[in-house]
């Protein structure tokens, strides 16, 4: 927080500065000006929260300065310190919504009381502005989500073309006549959100959209529409001469940027010709058909003809036996062995992997109905998974979830307590729900649910609180840099660490260190 002291007499400025215990009020910087002209320049540059202002000054006096502050809309809280008990000056302070009017010679107690009121008023104003900004942001997000949902329904062919779609195209600047369509599947989205973004799917999508805009900003208007977590459609205008032929290279530019920046890998199916807005559902279907033929494994050079697709249903007897004995490790081994068979086949297109997913879902439904619950929660494997590692984890977790559906409260609670103990010992490491799932043989959804029930918080929130406690201690008691502390606590991005720390402690790391070193 910054304070500006304006008075044409140096001894008055010094007197104000020496009279107040600034660290006690959280004041980090004090600025000085001799007149209103200098003060206005400093206000524009530094945006101080509090202004101590004399009224009688050369060049621009206090009345003019307060008028300019009000005209320019600054939120600076004003404390007048004047040698004149004049109604004109008092009226000017009132019109500028001044916090106090202190007569010279002033007392330290008067300055500090006025400062305390000014800080309270400034914080109230800041909170109000923050709430307004957050409300506006939520409204914009809700509007953007509604637009995306409208477009997703249209692209899936579930609604006819309507004016809402036309309005969205006008809003984004997309062409109505020549639109290129790419159908995209993020291959490792689940692992990436879990590990790199600590389960924050919104932050992940924010990063994806920013990279998309940067990669395509020279190309023209574009729109990334999510049909669901796994199916994305990228629309781009194709108005320029020859741009349509360059479309595959632009898609490669986007997907390459995602991989190099985030580690996100995708499969991309393209519609070969540009489409008009009213034929987009057909273009999306063509792009989807192209996608289904793409391989989800690296082809082996020595295999000219792949072996017959193995049936996952052949594993049913083994899985049911493991289910009866609640042997989670054996379940994982059975599924891992099947996935290895798929890899060794030499070729596997997305359409074939979807057949395996359909078989897996039929087996899960049958097992849930026959062995445990008619009302079992949704245990299906997403149809559009396009990565074998992610597919393996998803199937294993759903079979584990069948065991967890049966109950065993005491054993489950002991397992979650062991997970909490492990987090206490390893919170500085980059632990994800996926890691905990593999270590303790619980599905991620079970860990999340039971941890919240037992400790009234999420796993990630609990881990973040432990990290921030450690960070606060290191800031107070060591000379380690913010970057070093961030790295020690598992944060690759210092800026992200600083944002998390400020959210948890109310101050950025360096300000927190300065405040506690000064106390």
From TrEMBL:
Key word DNA-binding present in the record?
A: yes
Q: Which residues form the HTH araC/xylS-type domain?
A: 417-515
- Which Pfam families does this one have? HTH_18, Response_reg
Against CDD domains, the record matches this protein to:
REC_YesN-like (cd17536)
> Which residues does this entry mark as bearing 4-aspartylphosphate?
54
Domain of life, per lineage: Bacteria
Q: Which UniProt keywords apply?
A: DNA-binding, Phosphoprotein
Give the Response regulatory domain ranges.
Answer: 2-119
Please give the PANTHER family that the UniProt record associates with this protein.
Answer: ARAC-FAMILY TRANSCRIPTIONAL REGULATOR, HTH-TYPE TRANSCRIPTIONAL ACTIVATOR RHAS
Provide the protein name.
Regulator of RpoS
Organism field: Paenibacillus allorhizosphaerae
């Amino acid at each position: 927080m910054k304070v500006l002291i304006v008075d044409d007499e140096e001894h008055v400025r010094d007197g104000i500065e020496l009279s107040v215990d600034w660290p006690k009020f959280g004041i980090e910087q004090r600025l000085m000006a001799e007149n209103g002209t200098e003060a206005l320049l400093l206000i524009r540059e530094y945006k101080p929260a509090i202004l101590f202002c004399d009224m009688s000054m050369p060049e621009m006096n206090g009345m003019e300065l307060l008028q300019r502050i009000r005209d320019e809309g600054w939120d600076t809280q004003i404390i007048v310190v004047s040698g004149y008990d004049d109604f004109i000056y008092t009226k000017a302070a009132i019109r500028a919504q001044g916090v106090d009017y202190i007569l010279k010679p002033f007392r330290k107690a008067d300055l500090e009381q006025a400062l305390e009121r000014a800080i309270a008023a400034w914080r109230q104003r800041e909170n109000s502005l923050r709430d307004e900004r957050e409300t506006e942001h939520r409204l914009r997000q809700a509007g953007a989500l509604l637009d995306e949902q409208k477009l997703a329904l249209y692209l899936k062919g579930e609604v006819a073309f309507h004016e809402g779609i036309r309005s969205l195209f006008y809003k984004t600047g997309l062409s109505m006549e020549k639109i290129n369509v790419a159908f995209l599947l993020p291959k490792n989205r689940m692992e990436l959100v879990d590990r790199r973004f600590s389960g924050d799917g919104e932050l992940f999508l924010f990063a994806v959209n920013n990279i998309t805009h940067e990669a395509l900003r020279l190309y023209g208007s574009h729109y990334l529409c999510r049909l669901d977590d796994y199916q994305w459609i990228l629309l781009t205008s194709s108005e320029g001469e020859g741009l349509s032929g360059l479309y595959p290279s632009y898609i490669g530019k986007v997907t390459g940027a995602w991989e190099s920046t985030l580690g996100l890998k995708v499969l991309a199916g393209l519609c070969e010709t540009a489409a008009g807005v009213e034929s987009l559902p057909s273009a999306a279907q063509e792009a989807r058909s192209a996608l289904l033929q793409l391989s989800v494994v690296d082809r082996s050079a020595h295999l000219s003809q792949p072996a017959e697709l193995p049936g996952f249903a052949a594993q049913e007897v083994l899985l049911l036996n493991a289910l009866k004995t609640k042997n989670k490790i054996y379940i994982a081994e059975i599924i891992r062995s099947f996935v290895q068979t798929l890899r060794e086949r030499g070729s596997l297109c997305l359409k074939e992997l979807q057949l395996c997913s359909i078989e897996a879902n039929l087996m899960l439904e049958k097992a849930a109905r026959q062995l445990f619950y008619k009302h079992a929660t949704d245990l299906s494997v997403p149809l559009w998974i396009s990565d074998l590692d992610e597919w393996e984890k998803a199937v294993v977790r759903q079979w584990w979830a069948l065991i967890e559906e049966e109950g065993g409260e005491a054993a489950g609670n002991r397992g979650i307590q062991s997970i909490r103990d492990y987090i206490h010992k390893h919170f500085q490491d980059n632990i994800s729900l996926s890691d905990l799932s593999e270590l303790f043989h619980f599905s991620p959804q079970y860990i999340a649910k039971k941890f919240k029930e037992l400790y009234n918080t999420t796993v990630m929130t609990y881990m973040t609180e432990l990290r921030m406690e450690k960070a606060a201690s290191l800031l107070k008691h060591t000379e380690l840099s913010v970057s070093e502390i961030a790295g020690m606590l598992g944060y690759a991005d210092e800026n992200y660490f600083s944002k998390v720390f400020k959210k948890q402690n109310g101050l950025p790391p360096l300000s927190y260190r300065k405040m506690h070193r000064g106390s």
